[in-house]
Amino acid sequence: MVQRSQLFLLLVFIIFSAIAAETENQDYVALLSLKSMWQNTPPNWVGPDPCGKGWEGIGCTNSRVTSIMLSSIGLTGSLSGDFVMLSELKTLDLSYNKGLTGPIPRSIGNLKKLLNLILVGCSFSGPIPDTIGSLRQLLYLSLNSNQFSGQIPPSIGNLSSLLWLDLTDNQLNGPIPISDGITCGLDMLLNARHFHLGQNNLSGTIPPQLFNSEMPLIHVLLDGNQLTGSIPSTLGLVQALEVLRIDGNALSGPVPSNFNNLTNLIQMFLSNNKLTGPLPNLTSMNLLSYVDISNNTFDGSDVPPWFPTLQSLTTLIMENTTLQGQIPVALFSLPHLQTVVLKKNQLNGSLVIGTTHSNQLKLIDLQLNSISDLEGKEAYNGTLKLEDNPICGVKGNLNSYCTVSLSNASYSTQKVDCEPVPCNSDQISSPYCRCAYPYTGSLFFEALSFSDLGNNTYYNILEESLMYSFHSHQLPVDSVSLALSNPITASSEYLEVKLKVFPYGQVCFNLTGISNIGFMLSNQTFKPPPPFGPFYFIGDKYEKFTESKKSSRSSIVIEVVVGGSILLLVILLAGVYVLHTKKRAERAIEHTSHFCVGWFSLKELEKYTNHFSVANEIGSGGYGKVYQGSLPTGQLIAIKRSKKESMQGGLEFKTEIELLSRVHHKNLVSLVGFCFEKGEQILVYEYVSNGSLKDSLSGKSRIRLDWMRRLRVALGAARGLAYLHEFANPPIIHRDIKSNNILLDESLNAKVSDFGLSKPIDDNEGSHVITQVKGTMGYMDPEYYMTHKLTEKSDVYSFGVLMLELLTARKPIEHGKYIVREVQETMDKTKHLYNLHEFLDPAIGLGTTLKGLGKFVDLAMRCVKEPGSDRPMMVEVVKEIENIMELAGVNPDANFTSTSASYEETSKGNSPNPGYPYR
């Protein structure tokens, strides 16, 4: 009788979860309001349940609308103030809909849970409402390429979590707001990494208070405004800065002397201002690649001695800077140099190019100087421009260098070796010779680390990076095509690259595919590879969707009829429930059948654990305690019992059961069952006999892991993790990979455990989720920690740390030292064991040949690359570890039949209980 009542309670819980699946009425009303003000909404926006019926572009969580992603679908109209009713909304992306006009309603400030506000490339106008400052959780604010006017709201300074601020290419005016003790300002954005405010009409000075040494800013883009006054010296305090654009203003005075402290700077644009004083000293900027300080009035001075010290330099542009003297030959020997433009100066003497110049050097432009002689021209095959120099006055001399020729770099994707096919009317042939309707748009790169715009290698890298990003986010993309016909736009001097994205397996994209591609480019999920700098994308309207537009009139009729019936249905619901209790119970039982796990009573689990006795306790953690038990069949189990104070809500507990019951893999710990009774939340797992990897590495379990066994452990853990990422439906991010959560069975096979922090990635969420940061310090992905954006690459980072732990048996953070940084600074590929002798665990077998060690270290360091886009996918990690094992002469798929007894270290006394590290 007791078990029957317990089952009834579980059924009631599931039934009410199903009832709650219908979209909240206020969300439905808000979406109807938006639909009434927009044209060209998706054709399946019909019916009263946008969540349950899957309205395209609408993402939901627990029956509440949490995202609207509708880029490039040709929406026209304005924003309704009623969308404030979407109180759970986290992402609003309406980018690339030029037909969206009018102001942003002030009521937007009531969307307190908004994380992403992305309205790139629309036609919104009017002032940016100051109520945006109420969105305290906002991470990304991208309003670039609209027609916003007025001043930047000081209230934006309230957005303490903001990482990305992009207001580029609008009509904003007035000063850059800073705080004064009464009002807020942008100086309060202490977590921001991006200030993109270029191509506006901002005036006044760059406030010194805007910058300080605690800021993590990597991009400061203030180009193309009307800023005056001097460059504040506080800008030289921002040590993380990588890209600085303050060109195209009316700035005056000298360049601050402390700019030499910006040792991470890669691109610096100071051109087209009114700067005076001495030429800036750039001696310590070892990473500086692109320098443009043209068209300023610096004091006449000789060529600075820092020219040859910039070993990363690709581009040096110093046109019209009163430079004088002779160019040192060492300048042309810089290994990466591509372009030197020193025209319209007072350079004189002999130009010596030399025979050791960079083989990448394509352009030397010295027009309008006083050069009288030339040496070493025979060894140089690039373009040399000497027009209006005395040397060109010599009759018959250097005609090819003294006549200006106009060049226009171009690039277009080369087709692979395939047979071209004729395409219908407006279809286009892809690089793989397949006819389709591509999604098109333009990538605008606001800074570059190269100037050889005709170099196909760079665009090939960009294509590969785009395809990798599309595929890693599981987007239906077959290929991409890039075109570069007019590389530099006259207004902004940004590099414009035309992009065509071709659909996979079909002639055209559906609306969901377009929205996801647009979102990946609008919210900066795609990280361009070096040497391409910060960018923004402007997508074109896509008109060839897979679905055909339906009659809006019939849709309205359906909505009115169904919507008007909601109240009647609610009134009848209680009666229907009573009359059909039996059928509901049957459906509920069927619903729970996919758990594929058992349901245990509390009384049963008490019996299996001797009433949860201390003698049966094998582990504990923040969640609660873990007990060893035994089923009547003799099967050993591990029982994780939550603390009362850490109890999850019923929905979260149910979600965890569903997640764990869906995954089945030999390298994942299996869920046997659960108990949900008398306020208890208990999970029952298979028992894994040899405890955790941490116990083995620390010596606690007395199991010695040599090099081959560590490779097997790494492979098993990688395979389990790859299964979660690639084959679970939806994909699952573990979020807490560490040695304590890798268990070893009796044959030392690795099993990934503890899914308490795991997050499934639903289709509506794209390839990542913005979520509260959780995990274990030392293993945690720094990109996830900084941005709150969780992806599969976050697990890859943690796995890379785990690989280093396998090598060293050290904790990730020990005595204030971080193992990743220590290995990075010490490793030397030219030396034996990569120069890591002092780090390697002696138990690994240092007296033997560690075949594949170098490749293992290389793979680990790729996994811990700080940009997530540079890390491999887990399926790639699995393949590389398999290759390493084959290199070491071991079959990765051979059965590991020996028991752990043969691996225990010989010592007196009994081995302690290895513990059971479920947390």
UniProtKB/TrEMBL annotation:
Secretion signal, residue range per the UniProt entry: 1-21
Domain Protein kinase: 612-885
Cited SMART domains: S_TKc (SM00220)
InterPro entries: Kinase-like_dom_sf, Leu-rich_rpt, LRR_dom_sf, LRR_N_plant-typ, Prot_kinase_dom, Protein_kinase_ATP_BS, Ser-Thr/Tyr_kinase_cat_dom, Ser/Thr_kinase_AS
Binding site for ATP: 640
Catalyzed reactions per annotation: L-threonyl-[protein] + ATP = O-phospho-L-threonyl-[protein] + ADP + H(+); L-seryl-[protein] + ATP = O-phospho-L-seryl-[protein] + ADP + H(+)
Topological type in the membrane: Single-pass membrane protein
SUPFAM superfamilies: L domain-like, Protein kinase-like (PK-like)
Polar residues compositional bias, start-end: 896-913
Gene3D superfamilies, alphabetized: Phosphorylase Kinase, domain 1, Ribonuclease Inhibitor, Transferase(Phosphotransferase) domain 1
Region of interest: Disordered: 896-919
GO cellular component, one term: membrane
Example of a GO MF term: ATP binding
Pfam families: LRR_1 (PF00560), LRRNT_2 (PF08263), PK_Tyr_Ser-Thr (PF07714)
Family statement: Belongs to the protein kinase superfamily. Ser/Thr protein kinase family.
Protein name, per record: non-specific serine/threonine protein kinase
Lineage of source species: Eukaryota, Viridiplantae, Streptophyta, Embryophyta, Tracheophyta
